[in-house]
């Protein structure tokens, strides 16, 4: 609905002033009574923002002296008395004054510069700043104009992205905020309308994604969730590299499943793929650590004759690396559970009250301990939180020792069975020197797994080519720890390596794509694999493994070559030639240099049977830059390796983890929050899928989120201190 015009706000028949009887302007303009219908069509007072200009409510009240109805329209003005005692009328917006008898009130709102309901001329736009696209920092200055439709769509997208309850739009505070921010946005939809808009946006975005996936090969990951009503859901996600060589991750379905049996999940995946018209899948990453997954075997059987099947689904099964790392790390924590429990209880004591925490901080200051990290308690189902707890606590070791010397309650705390909660382990006192030594060594070891999990659980960048590095580093560290003179760590490393090799030690069970991704890295190729293999295996094994990797890469190349369209090759070469001529036509020297480089490349590739031999024969890229973009390299060299670049597009999209960064460290299952659990399964799917689609370009920063939590925790403790009067300046210092 359009906002009211001044002619609707001020009827030409009678003028009323808020808080007074109608102004006597009848003789000048004639008189008529304002009926209830006229009053209902006028806007509400700005002083009462809960009422919008078009609310059809009764805006009249009786005036006792005349028994006539007074319209709330006249809240646009206020009646006052000047120093001489004369009555005057003041505009509530621009504060301009008029005599009570003035007839200018009729046209004042038309020209009032601060009247909030004034309409902008049609097609007139205002300059505003908008964030840059693609998640990049910065702002763009653009010309925009407000429309109710755009505002309503943006409101619905906010509800989806931020995971807000639908009734949020009916909250008084939110409506008041919208009224102040944009008075034209007065027709805020109800929660039922928002629910319908969510479904409409879901259908629209789904069609966009369906078009983007048309004829494209994808990699899949699966994950299972449970609602608080114990209802099972399957999250099916696809990963692919688009025509612009950008990695994409999209949730296809978040759907109800009868149970979490592997065959049930396999049938549901087949149904979802048919609904999306996807007939080409390259890999399926599952969170089951078993090498023989029933889900994978079922999909191999039912999709083997699909159009886009690659080498009979030889490389289909990919096990979740985050899940395997969690299993391995769990054994390490069990080896040192007593030391970890003592440190945990020490941290719990310090954080149990503001006074204890303040005393601990004072000890740290006296001991000149410089650390920006706060003490934090771990979460039982997240081993990374245990790692961070130990890492931070170890830096405050001397402060804990000082606390033990001067605080008798600290020593008693560990002996009190009711207060010492360490998961059933008898702590027997505060952490001793041996405990701190164990925790320090454990932190160094866990850091390998922590950093590795962060890298291969990334959602916005290619992780497949870097995964091998982490596995190689972990495997070599096992051997070093086993040779250690420390019996505890030698035993721990031996047990962890045994479980590690159960999943990745058998060369016959490991997916060769783990090595093919390294071979396709222009900085490494087979030479790097040979170097790493030589550190672990003997010469015969190394030679056999290199042959297997090259054979797998060659067979992938031949498969793509057999299904490639010749017309694409001509188009690609012509397009590349035109681009090169266009870029160098104004500089003949650059053109000659470019042609000479191509001549050298062709000369080096003489005798090469195909693009695989040509790629492997060329020298590796001499760069150790951590910011090296492997996708950009293949994009720029796709004209030279037209078929092999298609192989790289598939292989580099393979995810080695079923979960993203924020869930990769969790050893517990994923559980829906109460809001989502209260919705119907179809609405849950619409919300979760659309949320992913709308913010697909926004990277995930768990470290920043955890820093925020620590900072908020510090504010909270400072607030408690200021309330108790123990440190009045603490909270001010924190916000400074």
Which keywords apply here?
alpha/beta, 6 domains, three-stranded antiparallel β-sheet, disordered N terminus
What's this entry about, in short?
It holds the Pfam family hAT-like_RNase-H. This protein folds into 6 domains: 6-111, no CATH class; 126-203, no CATH class; 204-320 and 667-694, no CATH class; 325-493, no CATH class; 525-651, no CATH class; 702-735.
Give an overview of the whole structure.
Helix 5 (148-161) packs across helix 7 (191-212). Strands 8, 9, 10, 11, 12 and 13 form a 6-stranded mixed β-sheet that branches. This protein has a 3-stranded antiparallel β-sheet with strand order 3-4-5, with no helix packed on it. The chain folds into 6 domains: 6-111, no CATH class; 126-203, no CATH class; 204-320 and 667-694, no CATH class; 325-493, no CATH class; 525-651, no CATH class; 702-735. Mean pLDDT is 74; it is low at 1-69, 417-426, 566-585, 661-671, 699-720 and 723-736. It has 30 helices and 13 strands. With 736 residues, the chain is α/β, with parallel strands linked by helices. Residues 68-124 form the BED-type domain. InterPro entries: hAT-like_transposase_RNase-H, HATC_C_dom, RNaseH-like_sf, Znf_BED, ZnF_BED_domain_contain. It comes from Quercus lobata (Valley oak). Homodimer.
